[in-house]
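A quick aside before the break. I want you to see a complete sequence-to-structure record at least once, exactly as it would be stored in a machine-readable document. Don't worry about memorizing anything.
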Amino acid sequence: MASRRLRAFKRWMKSQGIQCSDTLDFIDCPQQGISVGALSDLHEGDVVAKIPKTACLTIKTSGAREMIESAGLDGHLGLSVALMYEKSLAQDSPWAGYLQLLSPQECLPLVWTLGEVDSLLSGTELHKAIKEDKTLMYEDWKENILPLVYSAPQSLNPSSFSVKEYFAARSLIASRSFQIDEYHGFGMVPLADLFNHKTGAEDVHFTSVSPNQEYEDDVDSENGDNNELSKISGHDKRDSTCENSYIHSDSESDYSSVTGEDPMMLQMIMVREVKSGDEVFNTYGSLGNAALLHRYGFTEAHNPFDIVNIDLELVLKWGCSLFSSRYCRARLSLWRRINISGSIIHVISWILAFALQTRLVQTLA
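That is the input. The structure line, written in tokens, reads:
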């Protein structure tokens, strides 16, 4: 039996024109959150959901649009204001039925305390990166959000736009938002964000399809498609990269008349067979566990794309203990010429070189 919040969400989806296949089963687990399963066999090419873009929470659809655009905010920063604004409205928000399904924040290192960051990430490649994230995002809040609260034409509750709420919003956006299209930019896509990640095992594909566009053209494109919805991080793309991410037209139909895109609908399409009773997975990309933790707040056991990055200084120190200083300088110069930074590939290079040199000495002896 569906939980109370899932029943409320399903009623909200229906009111917003979101079409969801009866073959999808939503499972609400208190410890693990919501997952999506198959109630019957699903086949490649099945359209399991259609989501109107108007049901997505974006800068363009939010009631705070005028305030956000007047302040010149866009990208993740603007979307954060939109999300905080709609959350501040509680049941009066058009997205109340969706927002009640979300956690107050996702458990990304971004929202950990500095003590937790130091104790849990010390000695890892994320330690410095997370501290830099927290500093930059605090500056974003201080320079852009705080002045907006007190200068906005409508009355805003400062507690709904506090630094804590901003970091919480950024954690939700980092782990849940999608790039929708040129007009909307980034946005929260209800239903699409409920599918769990599995590396290299995408079952369902999210796409914006125009009336004359073939599904195969979108999925089979080796390099992806401009209409494909891509999971984004809030950390690896700063807000400066999102400038002018939407077209300043009077309406979405004006934009779509130029691009030929379907202005209304997103689709969720099966890209592989899923048996009845199995979970239906999305994939956020071929990412190692450090990237998954950084961007989405979790890691994956037996991740085939996991890597270990090792500081270049440590590699050089180890290499110079085995090889001559001249050889070390030559190798370092080569790495810099081909613009490679210190990582596991360098360790392998040193090990192979050492093994070959040792074997040569043994052969000569």
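Two observations worth writing down. The longest strand covers residues 24-29. The mean pLDDT is 80. We'll return to this after the break.
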